[in-house]
Design a protein that fits this description.
470 residues; three-stranded antiparallel beta sheet; 12 strands; mainly alpha; 3 domains; globular
Length: 470
């Protein structure tokens, strides 16, 4: 038997198996209507009051390096933002662009803190209702909780029971498996979406590997976009436990499906999920090529201009069958080592495939690049005889015997070209130097970007690697 207080001066006894949150609320309302609910006597107002120093209500505090720029989220920051913006936001018009950025940043830190507060409170609520015998626990990674916890939250906040269970399980998982990520959220250093990405990608790891990933990704998330963080997290998981990533892929493949559906506009849509990566990429190439063929045949209407091109970046060790580092497909994402080698073998059989080699500095930045001419039927994904270094040299000789150094900092313009559009060789040097779009916040692969002149061509800018960027 479990006792729950429904109103002041009244206590009902409910059998645990019959606990009904709606009936409990109805009983509370009946107690009020019958006059059995006694309001407490009036007394002096109690609460937390924040007094702001005069300098904290100065708009200059929201500029870069101002007093509010580094203030942790909490009552002081919230009060300062409110004092600056005003009740209806009328104070925003008086702020400079820099100060507006500061207010937005402060609001984002408070958003993160609010998300943390909700998750911490949900976790505490669930902890007060531990699972009893016969009740279903969570998925085994977080704390088990009573089904009543989800029932009460779903009724209080108009959620489905499944949604309430998901929120409880998520709060427990993050707090227990990813404490540094959880702390970074509390401090306003990362966004709630960063937390969701880290939890989702590291879910396949053991507790020990998740702890290693937690320390790395909690720090990395502070300077990465959502897409950049997801890519970095996938790469880290493949490095920490390639087998776990493989098991997740194989398990998800059992849910493979193709579905057709009606769009809200009245048109139709089609979606395919959890299919083999090489088959999806081959299918996409086929659809692309068919679109171009129809356009060339004069089909009425307009089609988006597409380049039938997939760029696959493969570490040398993975190409030789000796490494487990992931490959990357432009516009698609990371592939584990076996899938990368399968895709390489398929690409090698296609007559239009061209190969390039990029040599790297120890810090991972590009040092030199070379493009091979013609078709090359190489790597089948199995390590051959001899030391890895010798195999890498053999692979290099098969593809190209000459690499062009990549200019960084100083450029003698020896490879500058006279036309506006750069040649394939020059474009590849730029792509090797900047693997992704150089615009802040854009992670588009360089192979799918335009090559823009930093100093405009019309203003005398050179078509040179020092004046081009994706």
């Amino acid at each position: 038997m479990t006792s729950r207080s429904l109103a002041a001066g009244e206590r009902d006894i409910w059998p645990e198996d019959d606990w009904d949150p709606k009936a409990a609320m109805d009983a509370r309302i009946s107690a009020v209507d019958a006059g059995r609910y006694e309001l407490p006597p009036e007394r002096p107002v109690e609460g937390l009051f924040v007094c702001l120093p005069a300098e904290d209500t100065d708009v200059a505090g929201f500029a870069i390096h101002g007093a509010m720029d580094t203030t942790l989220p909490g009552p002081l920051l919230a009060a300062a933002v409110h004092a600056i913006t005003g009740e209806d936001g009328q104070g925003l018009a008086a702020l400079s662009d820099d100060q507006l950025i500061g207010v937005i940043d402060a609001a984002r830190r408070m958003e993160a803190r609010t998300a943390w507060t909700q998750m911490a409170a949900v976790r505490e609520f669930a902890a007060r209702r531990p699972a009893s015998r016969g009740q279903r626990p969570d998925d085994g990674q977080g704390a088990a909780f009573s089904m009543f916890a989800a029932d009460e939250l779903s009724f209080a906040f108009h959620l489905t029971r499944q949604c309430a269970e998901g929120q409880i399980a998520y709060a427990c998982l993050v707090a227990e498996r990813l404490p540094q990520t959880f702390a970074a959220l509390a401090a306003g250093r990362i966004h709630p979406v960063h937390v969701r990405i880290i939890e989702d990608v590291t879910r396949v790891l053991t507790a020990a590997d998740a702890a290693r990933a937690d320390a790395i990704l909690a720090e990395a998330a502070q300077s990465k976009t959502f897409g950049e963080l997801r890519a970095a997290a996938h790469r880290l998981v493949l490095r920490l436990d390639p087998d776990a990533a493989r098991r997740r892929k194989e398990a998800a493949r059992k849910e493979a499906h193709v579905r057709r559906f009606r769009e809200d506009s009245g048109n139709a849509g089609m979606i395919a999920r959890e299919l083999p990566s090489d088959e999806v990429l081959a299918s996409w190439q086929h659809v692309d090529q068919r679109a171009h063929d129809l356009r060339a045949a004069g089909l009425p209407g307009t089609l988006r201009e597409l380049r039938v091109q997939v760029t696959i970046t493969v570490p040398a060790g993975t190409a030789l069958g000796r490494g487990a580092l992931p490959g990357e497909v432009g516009g698609f994402g990371l592939l584990d080592a076996p899938a990368t080698r399968d895709l390489m073998a398929a690409a090698a059989r296609h007559p239009d495939t061209r190969w390039c080699v990029t040599a790297l500095h120890p810090d991972g930045t590009a040092a030199a690049h070379g493009c091979a001419a013609g078709r090359h039927l190489i790597p089948e994904g199995r390590a051959g005889p001899g030391p890895p270094a010798d195999q890498a040299q053999d692979l290099l000789r098969k593809l190209t015997d000459r690499l062009a150094p990549i200019a960084r900092g100083h450029c003698d313009h020896s490879r500058a070209e006279t036309s506006y559009k750069p040649s394939r060789k020059l474009e590849h040097l730029v792509n090797a130097r900047n693997a992704r779009c150089s615009a802040p916040g854009c992670g588009r692969p360089a192979a799918r970007c335009d090559k823009d002149h930093t100093v405009a061509w019309l203003n005398g800018g050179l078509t040179c690697e020092c004046n081009l960027a994706p």
